[in-house]
Amino acid sequence: MTSSSRPLLNRRLTEFGTTIFAEMSALALQTGAINLGQGFPDTDGPEEVREAAVRALRDGRGNQYPPGPGIPELRTAIAAHQERRYALAYDPDTEVLVTAGATEAIAAALLALVEPGDEVIALEPYYDSYAASIAMAGGTRVPVTLRPHVDGGASFRLDLDELRAAVTDRTRLLLLNTPHNPTGTVLTRAELAAIAELAVERDLLVVTDEVYEHLVFDGEHVPLATFPGMRERTVTIGSAGKTFSFTGWKVGWVTAAPPLVTAVRSAKQFLTYVSAGPFQYAVAEALRLPDSYFEEFRADMRAKRELLADGLEQAGFQVFRPAGTYFITTDIRPLGETDGFTFCRALPERAGVVAIPNAVFYDHRDEGAPFVRFAFCKRTGVLEEAAERLRKVFTR
After folding, report:
1. What is the pTM of this model?
2. Number of domains in the chain
3. Which whole number is the average pLDDT over 331-348?
4. Which of 35, 85, 95, 207 could be a cystine partner for 28, CB 3.0 to 4.6 Å?
5. Is the peptide bond between 228 and the residue preceding it cis, with omega within 30 degrees of 0?
6. Buried b (16+ CB within 10 A) or exposed e, 305-316
7. Is the dihedral of CA 187, 199, 206, 91 positive or negative?
C-alpha cells in the first residue's frame, strides 16, 4: 500500500467506478433473473461466419500479429460495404482502420483528436464509454440532451437550437450516435443536414458512432459523411459485433480521410496495437453476405421490438418504441415509480427481470431519473417470458 495520501486512480477517472452493466449482470446471476440489461445477443450470428473464423484459425491466418491497420481483406470489405450501401468511396489502404471493437475506435479517436481543455459535445443520454474517453483525453464534455416527446408517437428528439447554442470557441468535436443508444432515436436527413452545416460553419471535427446502422426500423440510416463538407472532417465508426451478433470478437472499424485515419491510428497503436486476427478474416466474409441477410436480421429484430414493446405497454410502462438499435427506453412513472436506480435494483427480485436505469447515461441525472432501458436482442421465448413476468407483477 502506498504511503502517499494521493488517490491511486487518476483523477480524470474518479467518477467512473464499476459500470452499471457489471452490477446488474451480477444481480441477474444472483437471482436467476432474465437479463435484458446488457446489449448482447443470446445466440450466435450466422453459422457461415463462425465457420470462417474456425477456418482462419486452422489455416494459421491471423494467429500471429495481423497488420496494424487491419488485414487487407477486411479493409477492402469495409470499403466495399461503405460504397455499396452509401456511395461513400474510401481507399482501403489509407482511409480504413480496424479496431478492437467500436469502443476502442471511440477512445482512440478522442485521444487522438482532443487536447486537454477542448470541449466535446455529445448527445445525452450517451453510451458510458463516451464520457470516460473524453475524460481520458482531458477534454470537457458538453451534453446536449435528447428530450422525450409524446406527440405523434413517443420518442426522444434533438433540439437543433440547443446544439447550436452549445458550440463555443473551445468546441473541438461533436460526438454523435445514430441510431442512438439508449433512446433508439434515428436522426433524420434534415437533422443531419443541419448538423453538417453547423460543423462546416464552426470548423468542427465529428466522430459518428454508427454501430446500429443495420438496425433501423423506422426511417433510414444516413451517414453524416455523405453531406457536403463532411467527408474530410468526419470519423465514422462501425462494428461487426452489433451487425453479425458476435460481440465477443471485438471487431470494429474507422473510415475517414487519410489525415484523420493517421491520427486515430497513432493513438490506437498504443492501446491494443492489433487484435482479433482470425476473426478479421471472418468479418471480411460477413460483410460480403447478401442483402437478404441484413434484411432478415432487421426483420427479426423488428418483430422482437414489437413483442417486448407490446408486453411493456401491457404491464403499464410508457414505451418509447425505438426507430433503431435493439433497446427500448421506458418511463416508469405510470407505475408510480420515479427513481430508475431503485426500480432496477429491485426488479430482479420483484419480477425476475434485469433492466438498466437510463440515468447512468446522463450528466443531468434528474433528466434520466424516470427512464429504464430494456434490450430485446434475445431469443423470442426469453422475451415472451420476460414480458409475462413483468405483466404479472405490474398489472396486479
Report:
1. 0.96
2. 2
3. 97
4. 35
5. no
6. bebbbebbbebb
7. positive
